[in-house]
UniProtKB/TrEMBL annotation, chain B:
<dbReference type="InterPro" id="IPR008930">
    <property type="entry name" value="Terpenoid_cyclase/PrenylTrfase"/>
</dbReference>
<comment type="function">
    <text>Catalyzes the transfer of a geranylgeranyl moiety from geranylgeranyl diphosphate to both cysteines of proteins with the C-terminal sequence -XXCC, -XCXC and -CCXX.</text>
</comment>
<dbReference type="InterPro" id="IPR045089">
    <property type="entry name" value="PGGT1B-like"/>
</dbReference>
<keyword id="KW-0862">Zinc</keyword>
<dbReference type="Pfam" id="PF00432">
    <property type="entry name" value="Prenyltrans"/>
</dbReference>
<dbReference type="InterPro" id="IPR026873">
    <property type="entry name" value="Ptb1"/>
</dbReference>
<keyword id="KW-0637">Prenyltransferase</keyword>
<keyword id="KW-0479">Metal-binding</keyword>
<dbReference type="InterPro" id="IPR001330">
    <property type="entry name" value="Prenyltrans"/>
</dbReference>
<keyword id="KW-0808">Transferase</keyword>
<keyword id="KW-0677">Repeat</keyword>
<comment type="similarity">
    <text>Belongs to the protein prenyltransferase subunit beta family.</text>
</comment>
<protein>
    <recommendedName>
        <fullName>Geranylgeranyl transferase type-2 subunit beta</fullName>
        <ecNumber>2.5.1.60</ecNumber>
    </recommendedName>
</protein>
<feature type="domain" description="Prenyltransferase alpha-alpha toroid">
    <location>
        <begin position="60"/>
        <end position="240"/>
    </location>
</feature>
Length: 714, 253
């Protein structure tokens, strides 16, 4: 049967309405939406065909006439009425709404003084909108036209809320109506508290109202942030938990309440004021600094805190619990006898365009030109003495904090400049870590106001333990237990992780569609567990003989699909993450001391996924062999990588000028590798690692010595 | 501004009036159509035409940015993050993003971020998959995804929990924030293929029981590309255009 092209004629103004909201949480409403969505696919009977064809012909004729009056700027009564007829059939005819605005302006320009006429003209517009909305109350054009009329200032706003109530009863999930409500409320100066009550009324009639819950969260956030009368988090949040319980226990499958519950959990766990979570060096620690190509042979000092750098400087790392801006030499004072460190430059460890980050680094110089005996320097760091450190939500870092560490600077033992190849398979000894070596794992206890938070979470945990048979019940319980671990003092921590890991393992089976979400959460919980105590972490710490017993953290073969707990691992210099399931290095950027990194046998699909490594200024040895680089057509980190594609400036170098087609072909390898200062790289076992790419790499990384185990230069 | 250009038998004469109506052969378009038109030029590599339209579009689009960084659809001032996306997308393809105030544009989009990690059409508006695509896409193109760093997990989970398959909006957003591995790709491929019509002229619809149209056919195929369906060319999740085309335009200086 010949399809009727008229059914989806291109000449019909294509309304790219993106409105599918009702489909999210409710079955199709009975109101017809006859444009593109919801038109049944069926064979039409001949008389239906004919009726439909004649309807289409009428519409096309109307449109043609309308275009003509519009282009000729005809604003007679008949012409305006024609536009009304068109809008009655097709409220999405945006141009018709624009035409009506032009017509109104045309009339107003001539009849400004006649207030009654002006009002009646605008009232007529409101009527047209109302009738259009009854046809399709999701028409962007109609709602905007109404706003336009209201903003002229001649119409009564009191009616608007009444009209909205009528529409809400037809479809309470209509986000257009809610948006318009916000607009109208602003015009009437209704209080947020009254609006909050309104959301409660809607919710009590129907728990499954995502819009109402959403608006509730917006209003509450604002009232809490403003510290309005009677709105303190320790009182309000527990009340909200009670409110949402009714919703989530009435219908477990309905998502509205669950997302609100998730928001409440966020409000419970996340303290608004930014805090320092950890630092390197940490308070009370002692670090040995050495420079050049050689390193210390002094085995008496704790190997954990020996740092060698060919840069003659070491990174001072500050790790905050949330992204902050404003870390500078004015807001962070570093007192030290190490010379050459006035006016430190603090950089956020983040994308080039951003001045906000959880991690901030300043480099302290320690190499001096004169020969010196091993000298001991105390360094005191004071954070937040002057205001200026602010979270991305606008909260100030308010409680000044200071920590002190000691730096021993040693002369280097000059060895032959041997470019030693690092092997990841042998040369490791178990390291018998003492708790004094890992004392930086102690939490910086700065949090205040924890009591109501801990109590709220305890209550929720008790409630959900009784419910944990369903997917959402288990997931919520797992999230609650993680939240509890985050805001607990030390010592209690180790206890819950087994339960959390078991819950996620159950979920991987129970809800296999989201298997890899639960897998990621499982990895996060596992890493939290590993780093929760000295005892558990020390099982993974080894000493690598060939680089002066540097401490290597070996987290291989743990099925890790995600990196976490990095704030506890800032001291790590060698990291083995081989034989896991990582597809990106997201999170590693804070580990500023890493000089050797093994990512072989993971699931890395592109160099863009390694973008975070560009922040590791000490990185010299990288193994990404046996991954999936070059195998996939879809790059999931394409826009998370700094390159021209994500609007980053770049200075063209010789390679960029002379090898344009290779640079375009291997763009992410080019942009990432050129920012690394590697001596050793392994890429074998990736689809990308053919002759062409292997000869391209040394061009991009001129200082490279070892590629896939072969020495490149003598 | 006017330009005449003979592409083929169809004489196309373009004029851009105040309302962004690209009057071509008496077809009236809206800013939404400006984007499609610019994209079609990329496909057919009509360089001469593109160069002429460059100026027209650039000034028109940049001129629609408001004080607070938002973009209007036309002179009547409807503000919506959809327009932010379209403007940023067009200006980027035309390599003149700097003709707009990118920082303010980004700040406005971030102000539309919600507590569930998603985005709405204006500040305070609830999250909607299509708006999320527009906002995440705009942030991606302007290199501003770090603004959703802490929200990627929350947003990723919200997108995964959509009960109806909005293949393109949800998929492309998940890909841009690197959380697409959280959904069951095989299931989604099957859904899209179930929406195909095998007889008559083919095509894809929004649901298996609905009629087909060009819009959903395009988005269905694009979705299959993002799901790495064999034989389908790689598509860029932010621009909805082939990766090769975007690489060529953006990376080559």
């Amino acid at each position: 049967m010949k399809p009727d092209r008229n059914k989806f004629s291109i000449e019909e103004p294509l309304s790219l309405s993106l409105d599918r909201s009702r489909d999210d949480f409710q079955p199709l409403s009975s109101t017809s939406e006859r444009k593109m969505h919801g038109r049944p696919r069926k064979a039409y009977k001949p008389e239906e065909e004919a009726a439909s064809a004649s309807k289409a012909a009428k519409l096309r004729s109307l449109q043609t006439q309308f275009m003509s009056i519009h282009h000729h700027k005809i604003y007679t009564k008949e012409a305006i009425d024609l536009s009304r007829k068109l809008l009655e059939i097709n409220p999405e005819a945006y141009t018709a709404w624009n035409y009506r605005k032009l017509a109104v302006e045309d009339t107003l320009s001539r009849e400004e003084s006649n207030q009654d006429l002006v009002k009646s003209i605008l009232d007529e517009e409101l009527k047209v909108v109302e009738s259009a909305l009854r046809q399709n109350f999701k028409s962007y054009g109609a709602w905007h036209h109404r706003k336009w009329v209201l903003s002229k200032g001649h119409s009564s706003v009191g009616n608007e809320l009444r009209l909205l109530d009528k529409f809400q009863s037809l479809d309470s999930r209509n986000f257009h109506a809610w948006n318009y409500r916000r607009f109208a409320v602003e015009l009437t100066n209704r209080s947020k508290q009254d609006e909050l009550k309104y959301t409660e009324d809607i919710i009590s009639k129907d728990f499954s109202n995502y819009s109402a819950w959403h608006n509730r969260s917006v209003l509450l956030s604002s009232l809490l942030a403003r510290k309005a009368e009677g709105f303190t988090p320790n009182e309000k949040i527990p009340e909200e938990y009670k409110l949402v319980h009714d919703a989530i226990f009435t219908d477990e499958d309905d998502q509205s309440g669950w997302f609100y519950h998730l928001w409440l959990l966020d409000q419970t766990v996340n303290v608004e004021t930014p805090l320092l979570t950890s630092s390197w060096p940490s308070h009370g620690s002692c670090i040995n600094l050495s420079g050049g190509d050689g390193c210390l042979n002094d085995s008496s000092s704790s190997k954990l805190t020996t740092f060698c750098s060919d840069l003659g400087s070491f990174p001072l790392i500050l790790y905050f619990d949330q992204p902050v801006s404003g870390v500078s030499s004015s807001t962070v004072a570093v007192d030290s006898e190490l010379r050459g460190n006035e006016d430190l430059v603090w950089e956020p460890v983040s994308n080039k365009n951003s001045r906000v980050s959880c991690v901030w680094v300043a480099r302290l110089n320690y190499m001096s030109s004169e020969p010196c005996f091993p000298k001991e320097y105390k360094v005191k760091v004071r954070i937040g003495n002057s205001p200026g450190i602010v979270s991305s939500r606008g909260c100030n870092f308010s409680t000044p904090y200071e920590f002190v560490f000691t730096a021993h600077v040693h002369d280097t033992v000059r060895e032959d400049s041997q470019e030693v190849i690092v092997s990841w398979t042998d040369g490791f000894d178990i390291w018998d870590a003492q708790s004094k070596d890992l004392n930086f794992l102690v939490n910086l206890d700065q949090q205040m106001g924890l009591k109501w938070r801990q109590e709220a979470i305890e209550e929720e945990i008790e409630l959900f333990r009784a419910l944990s048979d369903s997917k959402i019940g288990k997931l919520t319980l797992a999230r609650l237990l993680m939240a509890k671990a985050m805001i607990s003092e030390n010592g209690v921590k180790g206890v819950h992780y087994e339960e959390i890991l078991e819950l996620y393992s159950d979920l991987m089976v129970l809800d296999s569609s989201h298997y890899r979400y639960y897998k990621d959460e499982h990895s996060v919980a596992l890493l939290h567990k590993v780093t929760s105590s000295t005892e558990s972490l020390s099982r993974y710490l080894f000493q690598y003989r060939d680089i002066n017993n540097s401490i290597c953290l070996r987290l291989n073969n743990l099925s890790l699909s995600r990196i976490a707990s990095v704030e506890k691992l800032l001291f790590v210099q060698m990291l083995d993450l081989s034989h896991n399931e990582l597809h990106s290095t997201e999170g590693l950027e804070a580990m500023q001391l890493i000089s050797c990194l093994n990512l072989s046998h993971n699931r890395i699909r592109s160099f863009s996924a390694l973008d975070s490594l560009r922040h590791l200024k000490q990185l010299r040895v990288l193994d990404v062999s046996h991954n999936n680089i070059g195998e996939h057509s879809v790059d999931t980190t394409r826009y998370l990588c700094s390159s021209p594609l994500s609007n980053s400036e770049w200075t063209e170098d010789e390679v960029g000028r002379q090898m344009t087609s290779l640079v375009t072909k291997y763009w992410d390898a080019y942009f990432v590798l050129r920012d690394l200062d590697l001596k050793q790289l392994d890429i074998a076992g990736n689809v990308i690692a053919g002759d062409e790419f292997s000869s391209f790499v040394p061009q991009v990384v001129p200082k490279l010595v070892w590629l896939d185990g072969q020495k490149l230069r003598s | 501004m006017t330009c005449n250009n003979v592409l083929d038998e169809k004489v196309t004469s373009f004029t851009l009036n105040d309302m962004g109506e690209l009057v071509a052969d008496k077809h009236v378009r809206y800013i939404l159509m400006t984007e499609k038109f610019t994209n079609e030029c990329c496909f057919s590599e009509q360089v001469a035409l593109l160069a002429t339209l460059d100026m027209i579009h650039m000034f028109y689009i940049a001129g629609l940015q408001n004080e607070d960084g938002s973009f209007s659809g036309d002179i009547w001032g409807e503000v919506d993050t959809r327009f932010s996306y379209i403007s940023i997308c067009c200006l980027s393809i035309l390599k003149c993003l700097d003709k707009s105030n990118v920082k303010k544009a980004v700040d406005y989009i971030v102000s539309c971020k919600n507590r569930d990690g998603g985005f709405g059409c204006t500040p305070g508006a609830e999250s909607h998959a299509a708006q999320i695509f527009c906002c995440v896409g705009a942030l991606a193109i302007t290199g501003s995804l770090h603004h959703v760093d802490i929200d990627k997990d929350l947003l990723g989970w919200w997108l995964c929990e959509r009960q109806v398959c909005y293949s393109w909006w949800v998929l492309s957003s998940l890909i841009m924030i690197d959380r697409v591995h959280w959904i069951n790709k095989a299931k989604l491929v099957k859904f899209i293929l179930d929406c195909q019509v095998y007889m008559e002229n083919g095509g894809i619809s929004d649901r298996p029981e609905d009629a087909v149209d060009i819009y959903h056919t395009y988005l269905g195929v694009a979705g299959l590309s993002l799901l790495e369906y064999p034989g389908v060319q790689a598509i860029d999740p932010a621009y909805a255009l082939p990766v090769d085309v975007i690489n060529r335009i953006i990376i080559n200086k």
